[in-house]
Amino acid sequence: MNILNRFVRYYKPYRLLFYTDMLCAVIVSVVDLSFPQILNHLNKNVFTQGREVILHSIGFFGAALLTLYIIRYFCQYFITCWGHIMGARMEADMRRDLFTQFQRLSFSYYDQNNTGELMSRLVNDLFDISELAHHGPENIFISFLKIIGSFVLLMLLNVPMTLILLAVTAIMVIFSIQRNLKMKAVFLDNRVKIAKVNTSLQDSLAGIRVVKSFANEEAEKMKFRKSNQDFLASKASSYKMMGGYFAWNSFFSGLLYIVVIISGGLSIAGGSLTLTELVIYLLYINIFVQPLEVLINFTEQFQKGFAGFKRFEEIMETKPDIIEKPNALPLENVKGEIEFSNVSFRYNLDDDVLQNVSVRIPTGRKVALVGPSGGGKTTLCSLLPRFYDVTEGTITIDGNDIRDVTLDSLRNAIGIVQQDVYMFSGTIKENIAYGKANASDQEIIEAARSANIHEFIMSLGLGYDTFVGERGVRLSGGQKQRLSIARVFLKNPPILILDEATSALDNESERYIQESLSKLSHNRTTIIIAHRLSTIKNADEIIVITDEGVQERGTHRQLVNLDGIYARYYNMQFEGIDTQERQP
Ligand code: ADP
Ligand code: MG
Which residues belong to any copy of the ABC transporter domain (predicted)? Predict the structure, then answer.
């Protein structure tokens, strides 16, 4: 399907609107073209008759013209109002499709693309597209109708004058197109510069807390001032070009009239043209020139709209990396037995992050992953919900390859508590209920109780209806973490991943949260990554992963006795703590 077809498919639901819009466009053009024609008729057949005939006919022609202009009024209203609404509806449809596509795209896509830029596409590009969608066909259609119609009528009035006119217009069009190409470059520069302003603004606002904590307001202001000034300079140069362009354009129109008046004067002198014919001729020139200008000015909008649509289609055509097999079955009655068999994984074309890793976790057991930062622990965990697919090997849950089951059922079977907690703007209740859309108030409260956060929530003015603020800024790290644990309690998955869930917390909060986490992992197959080894001592198996791969595995006691990497970590963390705690 070529790009034009793909564009046209968005018109399909609004066929009726579109055709009506076009019909109105035709009527408007016909009315505009017929005015000088009626004048011509009056001049030839009525005004040359006696006083009686003129008085008798003028009322009729007045009424006829009034009727035409009333019809034109409604058509113009339809074009402006419903034409724009059609464009806006198409824009909304595209935005809906783009949003759906954003939801479908995989983690890897977001690893490679900047969210600020994606957001700007959702707003700017779609606006350009909608303008094109509405004005495009109508402008092109009306303009061509008027240009062709008036040209034919001009030729009928006077051939030599029209040929001279054509020559002058051709020069004007060529000149304008060249100007336009130059302006395009300047407009593009405008866009680049405003994007920089936006990025700078977005960055600074999103990171305003960091800015303030480093007392970097002045530096930020300087950075912003620079991009702001650059944008201003770019705008100024585009206005200079526009000034020249528009001034030349009106000069050219003036030139046209001068040419016509001179050649018309000569024709009148020669007797081949009457004064009234010259006036009618001038009226048609106006109808002829004005759509030419519209078309030339529209090329800019046309290019912008199509460029936007191309970018839109680029995203729409991106295939998500993680897709469901057509015959995928839901994962049901999950017991939670997990097996990684010979799993290798790399993100891009880089080196393997994981190589030949095999882990089996029986139902309800706990496996802990330990190792230096960057070793691949988080990566291993993100393979289980298929955030990324293994490069080699297989992962099964209850014996089912995770690539054979539906994504929803797979992800519903897994709860994840991470170090970074994301809170959506909304109330506390809504944020907990993110784990289960149709949860009852009772269930939400129970989940909050299990996560040790109920008392805190009740201490807030509005309780569960308290707003968390943008990204949860009004909550402490520990409180956010407990809310995220409540989410998972509510979701109640058979499998649990705890990825450094307590690493960002102070000791006090950690102890508190540790308690709810052990409650959460009770009776669930759990993969736990923890910085503090005290929390994983009781795991059924501990696996030490470095960037060299799996280095050690076994129970806490076995690994301590092995006296390798784990033992070294362990001794490091517990130096100074009494021996009873060191040797459980
Ligand atoms: P850990 O959780 O053990 O600290 P990670 O699994 O986060 O380690 O990272 C393992 C390696 O993979 C690191 O070298 C990291 O730079 C790389 N990595 C992590 N996430 C991505 C990603 N989204 N894209 C590319 N490389 C990544
Ligand atoms: Mg990690």
Answer: 338-572
497 CB near ligand 1 (under 6 Å): no
Nearest protein Cα to ligand 1, atom 13: 374
**End of a domain among 225, 240, 272?**
272
- ipTM score of complex: 0.98
Cα–Cα distance between 328 and 326 in angstroms, integer? 6
- Atom of ligand 1 minimally distant from the CA of 382: 6
Q: 188 and 52: one domain?
A: no
Residues 183 and 138 in one domain: no
Residues 260, 161 contacting (CB under 8 angstroms): yes
* Cα 12 to Cα 543: distance, rounded to the nearest angstrom: 57
Full residue range of the structural domain in which residue 223 is found: 159-272
227 Cβ closer than 6 Å to some ligand 1 atom: no
- What tens digit of pLDDT does each residue of 481-534 get? 999 999 999 999 999 999 988 877 777 777 778 888 988 999 999 999 987 888
Q: Where a domain ends, among 157, 184, 219? A: 157
Tell whether ligand 1 has an atom less than 6 A from the beta carbon of residue 373: yes
At 313, list the tokens.
């289609």
Work out the angle between the directed axes of helices 15-41 and 126-157 (0-180°, nearest 10).
Answer: 30
Beta bridge partners of 495: 414, 525
Supply the DSSP string of 171-197, one letter for each residue: HHHHHHHHHHHHHHHHHHHHHHHHHHH
What's the order of all strands across the beta sheet hosting 414-418?
A: 414-418, 495-499, 525-529, 366-370, 541-546, 549-554
- Integer Cα distance of 534 and 512 in angstroms: 14
- Ligand 1 mutation target, pool 378, 380, 527, 548, most atoms within 8 A of CB: 378
CB 111 near ligand 1, within 6 Å: yes
> Is 387 near ligand 1, meaning CB less than 6 Å away?
no
255 half-sphere exposure, CB direction, 13 A CA radius? 15
Q: Are 155 and 162 in contact (CB under 8 A)?
A: yes
Look at the pTM and tell me if it is higher than 0.90. no
Q: pLDDT tens for residues 364-373?
A: 999 999 999 8
Measured in Å, residue 358 CA sits from the centre of ligand 1 at: 19
